[in-house]
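Notebook entry, structure prediction.
Reason for the run: the old model in the group folder had no record of what sequence produced it. Starting over properly, with the input documented here first.
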Amino acid sequence: MLRWYVVQTKSCKEDFVTTQLADAGFDIFNPKMKSFSIRKDGFITKPFFPGYVFVHTDIGTTHRMVKYTRGVLKILAIDNEPIPIDDEAIEIIKQRTNKEDIIEQTLTLREGVKVRIKKGAFRDLVGILESPPDDKGRIKVLLDMVRYSAHVSCSWRYVELNE
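New structure, fully documented this time:
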């Protein structure tokens, strides 16, 4: 019977194990998260569950093949009995991913919403969000000041919804 199982990988080997098992014909789910990194000054993609991937298989017939794949540490088990994961749990995660199994960290900020700048030279000014964050996390806000409108660019972290 096909069920989802959690495979623990060696450190930073999620993609390697995913490739190995997929090449062997297994259905693999290796969700990733795309988020903004201040240190990298841009968006990065990293494993959503570092050190783990999910395999959809009949573990009774493929246990040894999965267990001894290069890069695999073990299949999560209790008393040497692999533990199946509820299909619904996997589906919930899959619904939040795109075609590349990436969960994009979404902001509640959408074009056209009013935002208040929380930090910097324009602190406490209210404007309209013109563009979502770019690769460096910068957004554009149209500030409406007395008889004058100004376009400013700032980090998305510097604004909040103004309702």
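Summary: The first strand starts at residue 3 and ends at 9.
The old model has been moved to the deprecated folder.
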